Amino acid sequence: MEKLKYALYTGCTARESTPELLKSTLAIADKLGIELILLDEASCCGASHLQDYDDFLSLVLNARNICYAEKLGLTMVTICNTCQLNTAMTKHRLDTNPELKAKVNAKLAEVGLEYKGSSEITHFLYALIQDYGLEKLAAKVQVPLSQFNIAPFYGCHNIRPSELQNLSNGGENPYTPTSLDDLIIACGGVNVNYEEKNKCCGFHAELQSPRTAAILTGNAIAGAMDANADWMVTPCPLCHLKLDVQNHSASKALGRDVHLPVLHMPQMVGLALGCTPTELGLNHHVTKVDFV
Question: For the whole model, what pTM was predicted?
Answer without folding.
Answer: 0.96
